[in-house]
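Figure S7 source data.
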Amino acid sequence: MARVEALSMSGLSAIPAEYVRPQEERQGLGDAYDEAAASWSAAGSPQIPVVDVAAFDAAHPASPASLAVVGAVRAAAEEWGVMHVAGHGIPEDLIDALRGAGTGFFRLPIEDKEAYANDPAAGRLEGYGSRLAGSAGEDGKREWEDYLFHMLHPDARADHALWPAHPPEYVPVTKTFGERVSELASRLLAILSLGLGVPADTLERRLRLTSGDAEVEVEDDLLLKLKINYYPRCPQPELAVGVEAHTDVSALSFILTNGVPGLQVVNSDGAWVTARDEPGTLVVHVGDALEILSNGRYTSVLHRGLVNRQAVRVSWVVFAEPPPDSVLLRPLPELLVDEPPRFEPRTFRQHLERKVLKKNDAQEEEEVKKPPVAAQEEEEEASKPLVAGEEEHKVLKE
Ligand SMILES: Oc1cc(O)c2c(c1)O[C@H](c1ccc(O)c(O)c1)[C@@H](O)[C@H]2O
Ligand SMILES: O=C(O)CCC(=O)C(=O)O
Ligand SMILES: [Fe+2]
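Tokens for the predicted LYWKA7YB complex:
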């Protein structure tokens, strides 16, 4: 298996054709440092909102301080579908230790990392991998990254044999981080529930509650999965992407980085905005599962990862998602009093398979959230009124 790290280290000056993105995808593509400088210096250019959730008091959700947090998170989730979250309660030394552990794994020689290689074609997504042409989008282009992907939380569901044994602190540090993110996910889901005008426990219950006989309510676990993205230096960053434009399938995603820029999101005007480094915050995305439960009030944000010439970028992404089969994802009934459902019910697995694994025949029919240029071309089509259930076709492959 050709790893992007090996390609990058070979010192090539032009990237192989399978990494060159088609012209229509290159708008706003470039060295992440140049894009970051352009995006941050443009006067009045909109930036991803920063929200501080420290003042939210779950015991007093109607207090003025809690209501202010609910309002800020709600506005960010509606208008952007992404925010920098401050006051998240995860200790900075734990975050530093997590960064050290993940970086320690990627510092191993490639042949040592290969012991953890995954095999997506055989259905083994967990492990060390690189996107193959063919699994990386209709055009078969590859992404300029290697990654490590595994279940993170709850611990009973994680197979530690698939977690790196080196560095030795990887397992304890990453496990503790998973526990803290799980608490943060619950807190944010409570805030986001209140933002929809429903009781604080609504979203988390709906993401965990086994569908079926209401008499026998069984709560399954909310699952956390970790993907560490390793983006090597790239000699032609204006032609490549680290991660192509997509929305996350999760309910929420949590992102930390090594401080190197690269994350871009589409704002409500359809323009690419490069995320700033906001020290002490986590970037939090609304994913497809939350977009569906909120009947589209919260936006599953379209985003991508850029690469650059000078520095390796590493990002840690935690996907918080419902169990694959036991929960039916559908708009909260509480929201359907005077609005029609915009999504058809589906399990998370059905959603994932349609979108990521492309196993479903309906995939070919499925429309996707498009990056700005492609979206512009289809503006006329998109401006047609939506009929109930059609909105589901908006969500994209990942
Ligand atoms: O259950 C999931 C949830 C996710 O959020 C993702 C997932 C599975 O698989 C994606 C993935 C991982 C590795 C590969 O080789 C893929 O082709 C897809 C992952 O990106 C993530 O979205
Ligand atoms: O690297 C990033 O900042 C984003 C990565 C991403 O979107 C993903 O792994 O789903
Ligand atoms: Fe993503």
